[in-house]
Amino acid sequence: MTWLGKTLRAAGLMLLTGALLGGATGCANLGVKPWERDLLAEPGMEIDPDVVITALDEHIYFSKEASTGGLGTAGGGCGCN
Amino acid sequence: MNKTLLMIAMCLCLAISAWAQDAADEFELENFAGSVVLVDFWASWCVPCQYSLPWLNAMQEKYGDQGLQVVTINLDRKPAAAAKMAGNLAEGIRQFGDPEGELAARYELEGMPSSYLYDREGQLITSHVGFLKADSDKHEAEIEHALEGKQQ
Predict the structure, then answer these.
(1) Which helix (H) or strand (E) holds A13?
(2) Closest approach of chain A CAs to the CA of B45, in angstroms?
(3) Phi-psi domain of B145 (left: phi exceeds 0; alpha: psi -120 through 50; beta: other)
(4) ipTM of the complex as predicted
(5) Residues of B in contact with A41 (CB under 8 A)
(6) Domain layout of chain A by residue ranges
(7) Disulfide-capable partner of B40 in A33, A34, B53, B115 (CB 3.0 to 4.6 Å)?
(8) Could you tell me the pLDDT band of residue B120, with boundaries at 50, 70 and 90?
(9) DSSP string, B78-128
């Protein structure tokens, strides 16, 4: 193997090792510490802040789209159920 | 009507301003040598903390004379939110505020609330993450053991 080949091989190995190490530790720190969750605990951060509004939105959606399924409600799209 | 509201607002302001906690850098475990120390990290936004604080209050009042020292470390970034919850804590409880999370980082908290029980020599006996009312009797027994100087 030529000198250039050896160098390239060594560089490749180093890159691979770096990528593996990075992959292994990448999820070790997700950024937000347990004591920094004050903003995440705000009511406005909830995915579903108001179940009643969500239910109404879902009802309107399936009525308008004339479709059923996916939202857990049966109906034919007439908007009457 | 307006006067009543004003009075209530003033009382509330006084209650909040009367509540004070020491800075995090003043917290040293050695300062409580000779006491069984229960260090508890809490915050106003942490739901289980709403249940653990009254329990800590009760423990301080029940075992304070026997040498228990409850130390609370608040991690709120907004002191007013903490004051609402901690304003009526027992007088014997030593309260520290750690808005920057320095102590929390030093303790490497895994969750909220977190508590650490130390014996009279400052050796860690046990620690807990979270608070369940169902486990409070077990935690109380640990405190009693520590006060009696028994090993767990």
Answers:
(1) helix A3-25
(2) 6
(3) alpha
(4) 0.74
(5) 45-46
(6) 45-73
(7) B115
(8) very high
(9) SHHHHHHHHTT--TTSEEEE-TT-HHHHHHT--SSSEEEEE-TTS-EEEEE
Residue whose structure tokens are 């505020």? B97
The dotted CATH code for B21-148 is: 3.40.30.10
Strand partners, B114: B41, B129
**Cα separation values, A81 from A65, A67, A71, Å:** 14, 13, 14
Q: Which residues of B touch A (CB under 8 A)?
A: 41, 43, 45-46, 75-78, 101, 104-105, 109-112, 114
Interface of A with B in 2-61 (CB under 8 A): 33-38, 41-42
Q: B41, A35: Cβ pair inside 8 Å?
A: yes
Q: Which two tokens stand for residue B31?
A: 């300062």
Pick from B25, B46, B30, B20: nearest CA to B101: B25
Domain ranges of chain B: 21-148
> Mutation test of the interface with chain B: which of A29, A35, A38, A45, choosing the one with the most B Cβ atoms within 10 A?
A35
- Packing angle of the helix pair B2-18, B79-86 (nearest 10 deg): 90
Chain B residues within an 8 Å CB radius of A38: 43, 45, 75-78
Count of other CB atoms within 10 angstroms of residue B32: 19
